[in-house]
Batch of 3 targets.
Target 1
Amino acid sequence: MSSLTTLNRQIKLASRPAGLPAVSDFQMDYSALPSPVASEVLVRSVYLSLDPWMRGRMDNGVPGREAVAIGDVMPGGVVGFVVESNDSAFRAGDAVEGMLGWQEYAVVNGRDLRKLDTGLAPISTALGVLGMPGLAAYFGLLAICDPRPHETVLVSGAAGAVGMLAGQIAKIKGCRVVGVVGSDARTSWLVDEAGFDAAFNHTTTTDLRETLGAHCPAGIDIYFDNVGGAITDAVFGLINDRARISIQSFLGMPDAGPRWLSQLIVRQAKVEGFLVSAWADRFPEAREQLSMWLKAGLLGYREDVAQGIESAPQAFIGMLQGKNEGKQLVQLSALQAAAA
Amino acid sequence: MSSLTTLNRQIKLASRPAGLPAVSDFQMDYSALPSPVASEVLVRSVYLSLDPWMRGRMDNGVPGREAVAIGDVMPGGVVGFVVESNDSAFRAGDAVEGMLGWQEYAVVNGRDLRKLDTGLAPISTALGVLGMPGLAAYFGLLAICDPRPHETVLVSGAAGAVGMLAGQIAKIKGCRVVGVVGSDARTSWLVDEAGFDAAFNHTTTTDLRETLGAHCPAGIDIYFDNVGGAITDAVFGLINDRARISIQSFLGMPDAGPRWLSQLIVRQAKVEGFLVSAWADRFPEAREQLSMWLKAGLLGYREDVAQGIESAPQAFIGMLQGKNEGKQLVQLSALQAAAA
């Protein structure tokens, strides 16, 4: 490779947004290609994952959430290929996954990379079904909600990277699964392709509670909540005894309104907040199970792939607005490396 | 006994209150002493338990909560002695506990009575430490919150029948226990008699969150919530990672205000609503453990005993206002039976 002529394009945080970020909150920088020293590995990034949690890191730090400094590269999960390695566990050409940030190349310590089995599935799945979204669906549904056959599972944000998988895992567990989404096209995809029992578009629903009730005639046993807000409020009126509600990564939803503590008591229900990172010691087990389901054709998925690092800010903003169809990725370089 | 001359005084629901009940929402009736038929047992009531859940039964029915009909005897747990038995499992003179309602005598099927071991503790404890309050404290703390040594446990309504026991069980489990109460006298009792590490009077606290923070310098791992409202709102700002919050039987608290879903996510915390009846199959195990702790002197308790069935409505209203000091009981007849 010719490091003298290759520049590394990076996207850095330029300013802290209030509410929805603007493209001007990001800036593109060009730096020399970094060189790995002892134990380090140089990676060419192919896919960058864009995820809701990144928005939280753009704010000033709050307890439990580290802020990105102004001028720092935006953080993010990446899959790519090893270019040069000073770690004996990796060789040039290995497919790897790691938190490499919004940049075309990265140098990291080998211990922060995970080698991918390219025979298993396309490498982009390491950011989706077999990555954080798959793990969040797996633990958020199975560990927090313990689904039983014939229970009714409601998933909000059901066409999102996590929601679509949570619903399909619930189907594998024998549940009746209903999805709430933001467009009619997503409704069709969930029912026709992902095997949901039903799905509806909340943006064209006049009475959320009535519509939820019609789709969940036996009440709601499990609510896999990706959105919060009005949908969550409506769900609380329909939960069954001993209902389980898993909540994670709400974005832009007002954290005010009617409360439902009394309903939790009457229904002996629980609401549990959930960060997938807490389950890191069980990731291998979960990845193995998810891989088996994927190979068996039980987990369909969709990817929405923006092209080129320069498209990342706009794609990120669109994802926060719910415009993406499936897991939002940015392709940063070709899947097949050009001759180095 | 001379059933011809004995009347059974009963307190019935006269009207449905809005908010705090008035004495006029109840009416006293006099009926002939009932006679037990096959399998039935006639019981003379000695202590009636007054509990917050009774207020909910005075409203029109909501899902999961049966309403008392106008003109029906108010429901309630009672301990007393068998007068006459057509069930071979009971004999005259046996001490028993059951849901016999607000009345001086009751006839029930023997299967709905539990025989008490009078050698174990005063029979009134069957309505307190060894009754529903004890069981609610036991399961609400141990099963829902899983306390670990050195964790900080906050109990609101800490001088109430359930709260005082939850705090003491947390102490047995090696936790640091802080109580929130409504008077300085209760603060002293909790620290000096019940062994709480600290307690404070929220009615004289100017900044709830600051005071909570001062009493819980290591944050809050477990919140045993008996009250809801402003105290609960303040607690949410101070919970630690993986905090567990058990909620039950709030009364008169506005179910609106700031919400804390985001905080649950950041802290990976859970809020679980809880009805003690759900754990009925484990009551024997719990009663055995509570009895052992009681015998070992590890569970102190207080009782507030009103005298005579005619005092029950006012005592009930006072309990809803938090005026009782300890478990609210009404003594309906003498502990030692008069010669029949």
Target 2
Amino acid sequence: MSSRDLIHATYRLRADRDEARRLARFIAYEQTVELPERLVTDPALLRDVVGQVESVEPADDGCFAARIAFDAGLASGQLAQLVNLVYGNVSMYPGIRLQALELPGSLLARFAGPGFGIAGLRALLGVHDRPLLATAVKPRGLAVEALSKLAHDFALGGGDIVKDDQNLVDPDFDAFRRRVEAIAAAVARANARTGGRTLYFPHLSARHEDLHRHAAFVREAGLRGVLLCPHVLGFDTARAVAQAHGLVHMAHPALSGALTQAGDNGIEFGLAMGTLLRLAGADISVFVAPGGRFRFSEAQATRLAQACTEPLGALAPAFPCPAGGMDITKFPHLCQRYGRETVFLVGGALQAHDPDFARATAAYREAIERCTVVGHPT
Amino acid sequence: MSSRDLIHATYRLRADRDEARRLARFIAYEQTVELPERLVTDPALLRDVVGQVESVEPADDGCFAARIAFDAGLASGQLAQLVNLVYGNVSMYPGIRLQALELPGSLLARFAGPGFGIAGLRALLGVHDRPLLATAVKPRGLAVEALSKLAHDFALGGGDIVKDDQNLVDPDFDAFRRRVEAIAAAVARANARTGGRTLYFPHLSARHEDLHRHAAFVREAGLRGVLLCPHVLGFDTARAVAQAHGLVHMAHPALSGALTQAGDNGIEFGLAMGTLLRLAGADISVFVAPGGRFRFSEAQATRLAQACTEPLGALAPAFPCPAGGMDITKFPHLCQRYGRETVFLVGGALQAHDPDFARATAAYREAIERCTVVGHPT
């Protein structure tokens, strides 16, 4: 297979060695020709279409790791078909987890990737030397005036990005327009006062038919980005909407646990929330930080941050964005942990820190500035 | 909360009683205001936005079931936001599985549901008194002529629906158009010969920007439906594409295992593959039959078939479509098991049955007709 471009997918198999070998062959057939081995005799199919089991080796926790090569053409240059090819049917089979993916340059070249990436977002903000501070406008149910005041005060306090909570969804376009205009105006007022460039990213969630209308309005309102839930909307839908309107794509992890949480099924954390999201054009990947109210491990967070920034063809790196349980006292550690190329998303902890939200924001911003961090996590 | 329309969501919690009570409150806050309890003091928020824990009761296998009521307005009449509301963030929390969903009529009325449903699809086919027989054109890599011959012979043998394999994705629109035209013409030739009405459903997978172009072409080519992977494309994207072009929506389960497979996480099988897919407009829900190469239980299959056909507002029932491991000898049992309102999807077993694919199809069609089945499974 040496002359062809290949996708190498590694699966973690909950099985003994014999069963792992059987499962590896099963994956190679199931994900391509989807026929039993005995029905596939055509040499061209066996050579060009059926996956090739490259190795089956012992892995952690008594499992085995199977590395399988697929012809890159089988992904048809599409994100949906790539996901389908590497994990579509076998997602339904117990004990098969997609652990790693190596994609050839020819396939990666079909994806524009993050439209802004770390450098582009820093250029928008004019901030180059420190991690970024973000917050969420919430909760849903608060009057537009109160939401606007939160956003305003965050900008006043020197925060970088204020986004809608992912539950902040309006009943219709007019309500969305009114709310977004009010919050955008509040942020603009604060920016005018401080000379800052705080960005406001509304949450885009609408019936499929209305997504582009919402996105176009956001851009026309002079805003530069949106919050999207790619695991809910579909990776490629999220990609296309942000890309078509030149908007920063801040990816929220809602529903991602379905892919990542089961230890023996699903898709590895960094792959699902880093690599695949960069293919989906995410500039920022929000994830739940270890130590917060969700139980993620330090290793998962490290892997995700790596996947956001490691080389991936010509695709720009994205910001990893840990969220949850970010108390101000933890910042020296957090900055050390994640390094400079990070967006810290602080929600409840910021609202709880000081009844004056601008003052709370300033305190967090200062905590971030106090960390003398280098470019890379230690 | 009696005067409002409520969504009742039931979660299965892997926890002891105290932890289950704590988790239930956590869900009620996390999925709505997404703030710690102590930060939410506004009586209007507590009354109208925060979820209400209705009960926490012992469930199977030492787990607890928590029933939580959400204001139906929080779903904003959107499928994406409904999924987000009932399972977005808590998908990332270990030990929380969405087990059941009761949706009020006012919310269900926002969804058109299956555009054809069981009655509409039967009307297209002119078949009213027996289960339907479907197959997949595969494998990928076969020349268009060979794929066309399979489809032709299936129609000749009296099959009802021939769909593309979900791995059958073309490099670009022109290749898609040529392939679909060839297969459609082959089916039309066979139909002309038999006087039958075998339907051909191409697989629609394209970059988001191209989905409508592909769908429009399918409809213009005189075809009546498509195969879609809603778990890959996004539920609402799949819904919108089929609906906009008046196409039957046959839903393939690729990637669904991410939602359904983990016992202590994810979304219950019937809910993910029945209820939510009907909201996504699926007319047929393909799933892996018990006894095949995937390990699904009879109970899961029963629950899915129920969810496809049970009352759900004014939404039409959808066909459950078991697939995999469907040997001809099992048909008396299968017909008995699933009842008349079923599409049986036979792939490899049909190709293996007889080298003459028309004869193989006729044999399977006859096996289905021989089953004297009533409307409901026993």
Target 3
Amino acid sequence: MKGVIAAINPNATVIDLCHSIPPQQILQAAIALHEAIDAFPDGTIHVAVIDPGVGSRRRAIAAEIGPYRFVCPDNGLLTPLLRRFELRRFVELDRPQWWRKDVSRTFHGRDIFAPVAAAWSTGRDLSELGTIQTCPLIEISLPAPCAIAESDPNLKRLQCSILAVDHFGNLITNVTRYDIPRDAESVEVQIAGQCLSGIADCYADRAAGQLVALFGSSERLEISVVNGSAATKLNVAPGAGFTIVWKGQRR
Amino acid sequence: MKGVIAAINPNATVIDLCHSIPPQQILQAAIALHEAIDAFPDGTIHVAVIDPGVGSRRRAIAAEIGPYRFVCPDNGLLTPLLRRFELRRFVELDRPQWWRKDVSRTFHGRDIFAPVAAAWSTGRDLSELGTIQTCPLIEISLPAPCAIAESDPNLKRLQCSILAVDHFGNLITNVTRYDIPRDAESVEVQIAGQCLSGIADCYADRAAGQLVALFGSSERLEISVVNGSAATKLNVAPGAGFTIVWKGQRR
Amino acid sequence: MKGVIAAINPNATVIDLCHSIPPQQILQAAIALHEAIDAFPDGTIHVAVIDPGVGSRRRAIAAEIGPYRFVCPDNGLLTPLLRRFELRRFVELDRPQWWRKDVSRTFHGRDIFAPVAAAWSTGRDLSELGTIQTCPLIEISLPAPCAIAESDPNLKRLQCSILAVDHFGNLITNVTRYDIPRDAESVEVQIAGQCLSGIADCYADRAAGQLVALFGSSERLEISVVNGSAATKLNVAPGAGFTIVWKGQRR
């Protein structure tokens, strides 16, 4: 893909965001893309190729969402961004003039997405790259934390889930700062038979080897082992559920 | 290696092709290099360091093959390219003036190949980098599919082999589109006790979890599991054999 | 981190040194950084983020050491460099004007180190990035080979240790060329019940599958298996000890 881009726009700066999304995990890719987006320069074109439907009738698209630009398959990768920013316009990539001459059935990253992104980066308008579409983009389900009723009105319980495991074995969850009120008391994270008291400020707040829950670099609650791997210690994988309980109001 | 290149030619664009070739697997590296070559801009210098003989008497070379330029050990890495393009000229890298001052016995990528490639990229002619050679480059054996005689003249059987396993667990084979005639009927891939009917057009042609054979991004037959890993499911590694049978003519 | 840098200094060339240091292994990171430093162009800013103390009170710093520039946590990462070069001056990164607007407690690489390095690369002086410090930088213990007394005055024995395992499974040790005299005779490396005779010049000096000790690309003694993995064959990990014996003088 980088060779193809360099051949079309030698001045393009290409940055790898992530090569470690497990194959076909669109949800994990969607979250990684969403959480990195703010760190990139204005005008960046984000090319995302998690594409289990490659070669089938799934649409290939280029889209302008809020201030951002994307080239990717229409398979839900943009869902978290569509919830946060306006979909300004998008095209189906249906103009082979921008593609590699021979298009394979298994690697559209190289044959369609990369050359289209390179053409876009040379100053082409979105509308040149394909046909403007009006039917909606595909969205995937984003698991949200779910409040569970308690007989004690002062006790709050949230059913949550693990979205991803990062390089360090930290468990990235579907809980954000806004899901737990600031004045919550006696917060407890219950996962895989373990019980974590309180939300820490940083890893170093706990001793090495201990479990810790804290809000990570993406404002999401992470469950970690200090200087270790929570995924290994708890034997937990993406999709697993866990519970947070506290005393006080649920925002 | 990139630091060395940046010090000699700060304007060079460096692109990583692949860091996941298993150590010492010259055949897999040769295939990966050959299959990526078309995607890179004209004038690219390809530096390939799969180099189990580093520090021994194996030659270090720079070569012009067809429209392409290479810097690598003379150990067979260029074999598939030599079968497809003309070897125009090559030199042995025997001029320490282009090397790092201290040359280790274990990392010529950093100490010889990278600085020579950087010098070449600044406009030096190939003949400046070393002494023009006339004795042939080393070639490795490329396993080719082999037709097996059948008593039924209308039944064709091809003995094939797995060359590599990619990041997704797809099995990359030594079979290309040209090995199976377009009018072949009842094509069957037999591997590890499994039998796959027909060649699919894309992964999405089969249900998740199913085995599928299709021509991949390099025009090679690949054996895959839809949304899964064929290497894991079949417990097959590079070097393993398999069979393709069909009714009709063998081209 | 690269997105943040590109937003501040689009002309910066960013080179990845290494992403495979095991989490929290400051010693391994310190050695990798030290050994790569010579290969990079003058003026390079080295950003090193092995940062188990992120979010705690550990200092974030920028430093000029010998001819080199660094941005990193003050946790010992620079120890081998401080032993070899003069610490010219350093600052604590205490000026949020150079940081991302929202600083997380878990990813200062993105929020502090990357934007500060980018600002530095645009021509800022070190003294603008933070407050000049005079109290010393934190240093970690670097395990040194240790001579063991022998009753035979002509027999020398050195107690050594494994510092790291590289991508190939080579064992990188704390022994350098200068620890074994050139005129040493009958050198023997004793590790995990195995005994290696002599120091080889290159991997190809031994047959495939054999253990070999040689001085690697960093002038350190490495223990390898030709075309294989010494870490797997010997089941040895960083921190393990081993012994070298020879006849003659210890330098």
